[in-house]
């Protein structure tokens, strides 16, 4: 991909990206939002935006796969309905990926900061996120997996930012999961949406495999560390990290999508 790297592809650049990916992997395994670290890093190195997004998807998929396997092997991941969820999430994500070229994103770009503010406020004030015991579900598991899979999967394939946060709160609010359970259940479902998006970036030729795989190696290490933290410390760790990540994402989205005049 000769058009990509006017990057000074030295060992120091690779080591920097590897280290950044380790950190992002830890954060993402605990609460999602690793892209807040990796995407700006790739853009700062001079990659075109679409290539940065595609390369980020590759390393993120490797990280989420690692985290998903860690949670599965721990035997703490709630598996009820997960196969149904994966199936309908993949359908939603594929439809969303194809819809990118025909549906206007502007309304979502306006609504997303508002939605993230609501998620952040709920995360800080809700007692459900502090609970270490499950609560009463508002939907049956099969119905949740079908509806949430299609809707959130579509959103992930179509737009993407904040998908992990949306999944986590959906599990807590609608299925009554603890935040630890929600973190675990979110990973394989979010992975499906990211794979669908990655396929689209690959088809379009917007992936730097060298950088993506180097960062992927870092993601493996970070994901193992982060998932062990979740397994060991649960809600005590996940809730504060989740709130911190959603606050950073909210601030970033408000800065990017609200009129510049508001800041001057």
General description of the model:
There is one protein chain. The chain is 76% helix and 0% strand. 47% of the residues are buried. It has helices at 11-31, 35-44, 49-74, 82-99, 106-125, 141-158, 163-175, 179-204, 209-233, 235-257. The chain has ten helices and no strands. The protein is globular and about 50 Å long.
Key traits:
264 residues; mainly alpha; 76% helix; globular; disordered N terminus
State the share of residues found in helices, binned by percent. over 70%
How would you spell out the order of helices and strands? Answer: HHHHHHHHHH
Major β-sheet profile = none
Strand content: under 5%
| First and last CA, distance | 40 Å
Helix run count:
10
- Extract low-pLDDT stretches: 1-6, 260-264
The radius of gyration is 18 Å
Structural class: mainly alpha
Mean pLDDT over the full residue set:
85
Shape: globular
The count of strands amounts to: 0
Topology readout:
Elements: H1 11-31, H2 35-44, H3 49-74, H4 82-99, H5 106-125, H6 141-158, H7 163-175, H8 179-204, H9 209-233, H10 235-257
Helix pairs in contact: 1-2, 1-3, 1-9, 2-3, 3-8, 3-9, 4-6, 4-8, 5-10, 6-7, 6-8, 7-8
Outline of the structure:
This protein is mainly α and 264 residues long. The chain contains ten helices and no strands. Helix 1 runs parallel beside helix 9 and helix 3 (49-74) runs parallel beside helix 9.
């Amino acid at each position: 991909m000769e058009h990509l790297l006017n990057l000074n592809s030295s060992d120091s650049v690779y080591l920097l990206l590897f280290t950044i990916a380790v950190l992002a992997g830890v954060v993402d395994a605990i609460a999602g939002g690793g892209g807040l670290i990796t995407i700006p890093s790739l853009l700062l190195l001079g990659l075109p935006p679409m290539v940065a997004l595609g390369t980020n998807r590759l390393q993120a998929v490797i990280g989420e796969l690692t985290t998903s396997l860690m949670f599965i092997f721990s035997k703490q991941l709630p598996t009820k309905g997960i196969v149904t969820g994966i199936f309908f999430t993949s359908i939603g994500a594929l439809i969303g990926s194809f819809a990118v070229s025909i549906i206007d994103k502007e309304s979502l770009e306006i609504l997303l900061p508002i939605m993230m503010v609501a998620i952040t406020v709920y995360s800080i004030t809700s007692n459900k996120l502090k609970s270490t015991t499950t609560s009463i579900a508002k939907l049956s598991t099969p119905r949740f997996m079908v509806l949430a899979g299609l809707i959130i999967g579509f959103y992930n394939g179509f737009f993407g930012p904040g998908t992990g946060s949306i999944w986590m709160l959906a599990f807590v609010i609608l299925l009554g999961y603890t935040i630890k359970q929600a973190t675990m259940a979110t990973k394989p479902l979010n992975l499906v949406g990211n794979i669908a998006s990655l396929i689209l970036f690959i088809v379009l030729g917007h992936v730097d495999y060298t950088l993506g795989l180097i960062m992927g190696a870092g993601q493996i290490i970070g994901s193992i560390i982060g998932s062990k933290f979740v397994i060991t410390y649960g809600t005590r760790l996940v809730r504060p990290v989740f709130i911190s990540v959603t606050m950073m994402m909210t601030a970033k989205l408000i800065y990017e999508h609200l009129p510049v005049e508001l800041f001057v």
